[in-house]
Amino acid sequence: MKFNVFRKSQNESASGSPESQNTDTEAQTHVTLLPGRAYTPYATSSFRQHSMLTTATVVYKIVCVISLPWVARIVDCFSRVTGFFIALVFLIATYVMFAASKNVGMYLASQIFLGIGIPSYVMMERVFIADTTQILNRGLWTALPTAVASIPTLYVASIVAEKMLEHSTWRWGYGMWAIIIPVSLAPLILIMWKLDRRAKRYGVTHNIKSTLNLPEGSWYKKVAHLLYVELDIVGGLLMLTGLSLFFLPFTLTGSASILRWNEATTIVLLVIGFLILVLFVLWVLSKFPKRPFLSVSILKRPSVLMACTLPLFDAINTSLSGAYFPSVLQVSGHFTVGEAARIPRAANVCQMVGAVLVGLLIKYTKTAKVFMVSGVCLIVLTQGFFCYLANNNGGFGSELHWTVIKVFEGFGRGFYNIPTIISVQANSDPSQIAPSIAMFTMFNQMGAVIGNSISASVWNELVIKRLTQYLPEASKSRAREIFGNIRVAIGYAEGTPEREAIDRAYREVLQKQGYISLGFLIPALILVFFIKGFDPTQRTSVNVGDDGEVVLTSAPGKDGEAQLNTIAANLSSSPSNSDISEERESSEITSQEKKSELNESEAK
């Protein structure tokens, strides 16, 4: 039996029709390229819901925000390999669901699984690097693996996506990752599992209180303790509900959307969402949760709080002006699918190159603050040029113009991002590496939620109005169809009155989004000067106390020389009571032997 993955579905594409066109989107808030992101506009357009693109993104980002603290807590309670395994399971489920989506509802449901899988993997990668490197080298090793793996695939991906959509469907574009990801991630999980076993064999293990304080009795009492006390399920659900009710209406409200700003439904959702978010803050700050959903203690240090807030504003900027940017490139810029993919990805490539470069500079100059400041300044400058090129007296920037802008933007983001995340780790308690990384990433994702919500609100409100205003009278009735399906928009021939009207509408809305984004960068520009620097030469020592506790301490180092007692300590799983008893007995025996030797020497 022959099986052709490149066979087209009759109801999904027809060669030569507007629907046969496709587009791309970007994910610039992360260095890591999300597999299958190129098919998002294509998939939403196939459901005649291209405007739902930001709704899908906001759903994904909200789940990211919620999942990160839980994954960090689970990782600390069990092992690092558990985090990688969670990421693998959810990623496989994600792409199976994407490929099988029959409507936009199922497609949005897939974003929930993606919102757990992708950030779990990204966070675990950073935790693994933080566990196995010292501060001086951490910037380089944080950037290097991703850069080496992702720079070639950023451009190869656009070619593969183009060919996949040309010869097959977006469903196989997603489905193939359900096979590729487990095959590529399995060796890493196996290595982590072996390190975990080795740590147990040498007796270097975490003493996790959540496994020691489980109540006696039935299994459901232990599960309830784990969910309510250790994972703070109440706080997590409050935050999930509040974010969903407050931000999703922004993506569903507008002139051509299912909700209107003056409708009671929209107002009720916003008010209830805001009140639940206030209740969540009060819950976290109260004495009810023994281990709050958010580790507020991490944010009590001003430098850590400011360092986490910096990517929040940058993510708002990137998401707000970038959500529909690839679509506008194809419509107003008349770029091909490959060109529309490669222009925004130039920022991703240069971000990785800049991150590696700044990692080397930190290592050899032993300073970091200057790179953080220069990076933010460069991002603000490029965003100003973005606004200019989006609608320059009725013109639109060329491929060269946009590429140059994205190159400098990428270098700026790489220069500030690495020193900032290392600053969070260096200024946090060494025993809270996973929660601090989760907090930093969560602020980034939160910025993306806000940015995408505002972007969708502006897009849904203004595009349909501009189309109705500029389209010829004979074509005004097609305004909603053009708004809902990008392939209809790019199906009009260049130079026709309809296409010129569409181009103008898209340009003007993109420029407005760019100006709003620029406004959110001003606080970041001020904030970066007040972030406390850190000593890149400080080192982290890993020791096991007499009671079996893993003790992490930071101290200034000499040229970054690391007193690294063991790497496996940070990668191990929680021990059983017998393991801790054995460690205590061993430490007591060693202590008695030393005392006896000391007494003998004094006697002599």
TrEMBL record:
Belongs to the major facilitator superfamily. The chain crosses the membrane at residues 52-71, 78-98, 104-123, 135-160, 172-193, 231-252, 264-284, 371-391, 514-531. The keyword Transcription does not apply. Residues 581-604 have a biased composition (Basic and acidic residues). It is a multi-pass membrane protein. Residues 1-27, 569-604 are annotated as: Disordered. Residues 7-27 have a biased composition (Polar residues). GO terms for cellular component: plasma membrane. Pfam families: MFS_1 (PF07690). Keywords: Membrane, Transmembrane, Transmembrane helix. This is Transporter, member of the ARN family of transporters that specifically recognize siderophore-iron c. InterPro entries: MFS, MFS_trans_sf. One of its GO terms (molecular function) is siderophore-iron transmembrane transporter activity.
